[in-house]
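Duplicate of earlier report; Thioredoxin input re-posted below.
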Amino acid sequence: MTTFADLIKSDKPVLIDFSAEWCGPCKMMAPILKQLKDMAGEDVRIIKVDVDKNPAAASAYNVQGVPTLILFKDEQIKWRQSGVVQAAQLKQIVDQYK
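Output:
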C-alpha cells in the first residue's frame, strides 16, 4: 500500500485536497480539480483526502477547515490555501513548481 509519505515524495507537484463528505465547498472543488487535471495533464498529481477517514494526515498538516489544498513537491509544502480555489489559479501555481 502506498503511504501518504510516498505520495508526496514525487518530483512533480502533488496537490492534496483535504475534504469531507459533509462539506458543501468541498463538493464545489471536485469539478474544479477535474478541470485542473484536464488543463495540467501529467504536470500534477491530484489526490483527495477525506479528513474524517484520514485524521492522522489532516492533523499532521494542521488542517483546521475543509477544503484545504496543499501543494507538495519533493516532500515539501510549496503552497497551501483553505477554501475554494479556481482552476486557472491552481494551474498558475502548479506551473510554478513543475
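The beta strands are 14-19, 45-50, 68-73, 76-82.

Merging into the original ticket.
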